[in-house]
Specification:
The protein is of the alpha/beta class and about 160 residues long. The protein is about 45% helix and about 20% strand. The model has no long low-confidence stretch (mean pLDDT about 95).
Length: about 160
Amino acid sequence: MLNIKIICVGKIKETSLKELCDEYLKRLTKYCKIEIIELEDEKLPQTLNNSDISRIKEIESKKIQDKISKLGKCTLFFLDLKGKEYSSEDFAKCLDTQATYISSTLVFVIGGSLGMTEELLNTSNYKICFSKMTFPHQLIRLFLLEQIFRAFKINNNETYHH
């Protein structure tokens, strides 16, 4: 069975958003083993300067890299505004190809609100962008879960919203 791990910086605080994520996690257990790995985010100062931004990105990226290094062989998907935009069908095909021919463990990474270091981003196999618009990283977690679920439905020729 395919293993999917989602590494996220920060926790979801809103109850309704957490419930929606939990619903997709429950639905996904039919298709894969899935795990959310939450890493503590750094507290942002009231006013941010470039030094603060760099320092926080370094700390959070180090936490992500430390977690990835313990996972063994896997395919890395980083969510990044500079990444490639996929249609749902293309995303489904990509996941299916990876799972069938490359790795039985797919790891998705959602960085903190300030993003990740270029050094960390360059370690990814895929960089994915859901939209050129900016969304809270907690909301992106829900989008990612829904798109993974949709990908399984597409790949299994099951009916889902079009």
